[in-house]
Amino acid sequence: MKKTYLSAVLLGRRPWLWVVLLLSLLTPLVTQAQTLSYQESFNGLQARESMPSAQAAGEFDEDQLVYSGTAIASPGTNPNNNNPSNYTGASGGRSVVFAEPNPSTAGVQVVAGTSYTLIIDGLNTTTAGTGPNPRLEFGLFRSAGSQTAATNEFIAEYSLDGGTSYTNIGFTRPVNGGSWEFVAVNTTIPAATNVRIRFTRVGNASTRQYRLDDFTLRALSPALFISPASLIFPNTTVGTQSAPQQVTVTGTDLNGPVTVTAPSGFQVRVGSNPYASTVTLTPDANGGVSQSVDVVFVPTVTGSYFSQISAASSGATTVATNVAGNATAPAPSVTVTPAALPDFGSVQVGQASAPQTFTVQGSNLTNNVVVTPPAGFQIRLPNGTFSTAAITLTPSSGSVNQAIEVRFQPTTAGNYSAQVTVTSTGASDAGVSVSGTATPAPTGPYIVANPTAIDFGTVSASGSAQTLTFSINAGNLTAPLVLTGSNNNIVFRDASAGGSFVNGPITITPAADGSVSLRNIEVQLTGPIASGPFSGNITASSTGASSVVVNITANSTGNNSVINASGNLNQFSTVPGVASAVQSYTLSGSNLLQDITVSAPQYFQVSLDANFTGVTTTGNTIIVARNSGSDVTATTVYVRFLPPSALSSSSLILNSSSPAVSQGIPVAGTSEPTIQIANAFQEVRNVVINTTSASQAMTINAQRVLQPVTISMNLSSNPLNPGNTPQFELSLDNVTFSNSVVLTPNSSTYSINQPLYVRYKPTYLGSAQSTLQFQSNDFSNKSVQAFGANDLLSARSIDTEPTQRSTATVVRNNTTATVTFNLPGNYAQLGYGEGRLIVASTNSQLPAANQPLDGNSYQTGNQTYGQGPQIAPGYYAVYSGSNQTVVVDGLDLATTYYFYTFEYNNIDNNFNVSVIGAENYLSPPVPNTIPGIIAPSPLPVTLVSFSAKVKGNQVALNWVTASELNNKHFDVQRSRDGRSFETILTREGKGTTSTTSTYNEVDKKPLNGLSYYRLKQVDTDGSSSFSSPVAISFLNSGEVTMYPNPVEDLLTIDLGGSAEGMTVVITDMTGRVINTQKLGADSKLNMTSLQTGTYLVTVGEGASKVTRRVVKK
Question: Which portions of the chain are predicted below pLDDT 50?
Fold first, then answer.
């Protein structure tokens, strides 16, 4: 693919690239390179040449593409012959004309109704080419005459399937003909490897001619540029605006607006629009922008500013111009209003005038403001104390706005005219003109009061609403100054001394020079005051001085002023920084002299609006206005609690309207979080190790919580769990369990009321305990802490249940019984229990409900019947352990006992420790009644002996009794396996006798091989007992076969009966014993190790033996 876009011709077509190149040398971070993928100038074509002909001659710049269609090359190269020369960047030279050669001239013609096309094929719009959505550019000429956009005489299309179907490429067509126009459009051509573009002059009745040149298809490369590189503004006073300077923002290939953003202290605008922090520039149809932007410096604080004006647009690299300026502070100033106060008039020396007020204002101050009174004048802040000392005002953010009160209190007679000066370093001084005349003080004792008449106006029977004052001072006194009220309705106090109001008298001791300094006397009226006019006075007197009377008047309504407040407020509850739920109470009043003031304590708010509109602080005050004459009808006062942190508070909401008795509404609130577990975990027992118990739901209740609460567990240590593996798991959904969970408070109620699911998952045997604990940043203790109640998790595990059941044999011997378990060597690994529980009873069956309980360890009482625990009444645990042979004693000679055995596991294999209480007993296959293994009771006779001996082909049976008691008869029983016996003969007994009796019988048809005999004694009442079995080996030579013979390895000896335990002797032909073995249950004799030869194999012992000759191969 040719890349001719870096040629001098291309730079000539786009002169802005020279600017970009130059700027890139100066500011390399603000430019982006454009990449053109395909560019065709058509300059190599010959006059009126067809596209296929030019293709064959290799005349195209992009000759790897395929050019076709019915359009032809323009007839000449003269720019005046309709060649592209009058749009920026035009290449000049040959173009493509959508027409056909004129056969009569050297020119071209358009035949009405004929369409003409230019097709360019093989374009790549994948990332290896232009990339998707490339930009299409070309020069377009249309001959004179108008054509609206709707006519669509000239169209552009693309195809992705070789021309089977086309998609239109919309673009803006030139409105006026007769000149070349540059056309650019951002297409929606997707990524593809073989794109075809077709230009068509659509045939119609018109013969207008269209020409195309400088075809370009390239990747869009949005680019922004800004100049100059920096702007420096002169010093500018804070709060003012500098003269504007300009930056120029240009952009190409933009696919969205450009946002120009000014930093703090600067603003921008376009044209005459208002200045703002940002302006938006809209690109033209070709994605281009070129706009001058005004920039001004508008500092808000003093100091140096250095930042950047940035221009940004989607897909383009953001560019910026540096801006700098220095902000200077405005000059500080102070002013006073008014500049002069009215004359204070005549005031006696030592007396004080009524105060007047002026206001001090200052701006841009860098130092305090000092207000200084002249001689003879005093100043104060409102409600402060008058003094001749200067007052210092501290600016806030460089500003002051303060009222100052001034009064005339001359110390010498004469005329006074001066200024109260107001100064602040750096600002011009200001002053307030004041004047007055001082008259001399009397030479004798005197008393001065001002005013001498006080009118309270309307009062109620309860008293006055306000406190009024008069000032008093005296001089040259020789005795104390005494203030006396005319009646008990008048109460007063010396404001300088403080204290309670009294109805007098008040005595004031003069100074050594006989003077009483100027002071205010505060006066109130207190009830009951009769209806109608009221008059009284306070007399100021001192020996030798003329008394001064201050007259006091009022007009009483005759009715008491009363405030009524009703309603009980519950404790408020919320979280820090969040207002609680609103509560309210009702407030009313009658015969009030002033509105009711409602004062909330700290952390509480009051409002007449349930939404608390305009209430921003706690401890606020609201006014409940009288709304019915002097009454307040029932009014709702809304209250809420708004604590800044976790705290508890209790106080009073004060409802006051003097002179009525104030009413207090108790309030209490808390924002301290609480959390508790509503129910306890019930101990879990008998959970098999490495399994999971059913879950339990524990309800977590939390109040006044904002932050998440993490619930975890503190595991109690156990020597069987050295790794502290968690034994319990937690879940919020009873599906997913883990070692901790996070509870999220309800965002509306700031509470948690949620089940916590807990399950036991033991990894060792025995008991396990964990304590639930929590952590939340809402609590003052932000560390993990215990709940304190209902937080204990407790459980016990048991071992796995055995899978194999052993069969026990019980042999009775007088007062003992021997229980034997026939277990293989690795019985535990094969699924048999690690231990066995033996239960003995005189009952022949064990009901299912009476079987041993898992998790219970039965202490056996030293294997003595009747001393151990009972698993049920009459069922004694006589042994528990791993022995395979157990002797149980304590049995009664005359009683038949039944034994029940149970396999169990309780050993923690990690530590080889038998854990008491972790027993898991193997239950019967079907939990029903279990028959007992009978332990035969002793014979009701004293059996001296019972024997069985082989006599030829018979077995001689003999038994001797020392005594007999109610003996009915004897049954001789025989068995092949020592387990299942059958009766082969019966012999009458002697009944009852104390002498020795001998019995002889013969088994005429004994079993071949090993067999067992036992004696069953039957009593006259039908009860029976058994002797111990006796084993006999009997061989009938006719029934003994040995095969195969000759033998190679294993010789089978068939006795016609059980051969297990039979003795086999192998001898050679000289009689030398080669080997002696006991036959197993399979009756096989191993002869593998013998050498080849003939041997004698003898089975049996004594009279009962058979010998066969066997050949070993």
Answer: 1-35, 78-81, 83, 148-150, 926-929, 937-938
Task: Tell me the two tokens of residue 692.
Answer: 């999971």
1052 within some domain: yes
Mode of pairing for the β-strands spanning 236-237 and 319-328? parallel
The predicted pLDDT at position 221 comes to: 84
Contact 438, 410 (CB under 8 A): yes
**Strand spans (E) along 28-153:** 36-40, 66-68, 72-73, 96-97, 100-101, 108-109, 116-123, 135-142
Question: Are 411 and 474 within one domain?
Answer: no
Burial 135-169 (b: 16+ CB within 10 A, else e): bbbbbbbbbeeebeeeeebbbbbbbbeeeeebeeb
| CA–CA separation, 1057 and 254 (whole Å) | 107
792 and 879: one domain?
no
- Please identify, among 670, 697, 727, the residue that sits at the C-terminal boundary of a domain: 670
Tens of pLDDT, residue by residue over 358-384, are 999 999 899 999 999 999 999 999 988
Q: In terms of domains, do 213 and 135 share one?
A: yes
Q: Do 306 and 413 fall within a single domain? A: no
Instruction: Say what the pLDDT of residue 1082 is.
Output: 81
Nearest alpha-carbon partner for 652 in 642, 664, 663, 640: 664
343 and 273 within one domain = no
Strand partners, 269: 294
Helices (H) and strands (E) in the chain, counts: 3, 87
Domain total of the chain: 9
What is the pLDDT, as a whole number, of residue 861?
62
Rounded CA separation 668/414 (Å): 63
**CATH at 203:** 2.60.120.260
- Residue 1059 · residue 1005 · CB < 8 Å: no
* Domain with 917 in it: 807-935
What's the CATH code of the domain at 473?
Answer: 2.60.40
| pTM given for the model | 0.48
Name 739's Cβ contacts closer than 8 Å, sequence gap at least 6.
Answer: 712, 713, 726, 729, 730
Question: What are 687-727's pLDDT values in tens digits?
Answer: 999 999 999 999 999 999 999 999 999 999 999 999 999 99
Query: Domain end: 935, 954, 985, which one?
Result: 935
The span from the CA of 1030 to the CA of 65, in Å, is 113
pLDDT confidence of residue 1038:
59
What's the CATH code of the domain at 310?
2.60.40.10
Torsion sign (Cα): 1002, 1004, 1007, 1010: positive
Three-state secondary structure readout of 807-853: CEEEEEECCEEEEEECCCCCCCCCCCCCEEEEEEECCCEECHHHCCC
Closest by alpha carbon to 709, among 770, 757, 750, 648? 750
The CA-based diameter of the chain, rounded to the nearest angstrom, is 173
CB-CB contact of 268 with 260 (8 Å): yes
* Cα–Cα dist 1032/1011, whole Å: 5
Same domain assignment for residues 413 and 339: yes
Structure tokens at 606: 């009051």
Q: Is 150 helix (H, G, I), strand (E, B) or coil?
A: helix
Under a CB-based contact definition with an 8 Å cutoff, are residues 49 and 96 in contact? Answer: no
Burial status of residue 14 (CB atoms within 10 A of its CB: 0-12, 13-18, 19 or more) = middle
Per DSSP (E only), the strands in 662-748 are 663-670, 674-677, 684-688, 696-703, 709-715, 728-731, 741-743
CB atoms closer than 10 angstroms to residue 830: 12
Minimal CA–CA distance to 73: which of 102, 43, 33?
43
Residue 12 has a pLDDT of 34
Pairing of strands 532-542, 481-485: antiparallel
Q: How many residues does the chain have?
A: 1113
Q: Do 234 and 323 fall within a single domain?
A: yes
Co-location of 741 and 790 in the same domain:
yes
Q: Which two tokens stand for residue 487?
A: 């009646």
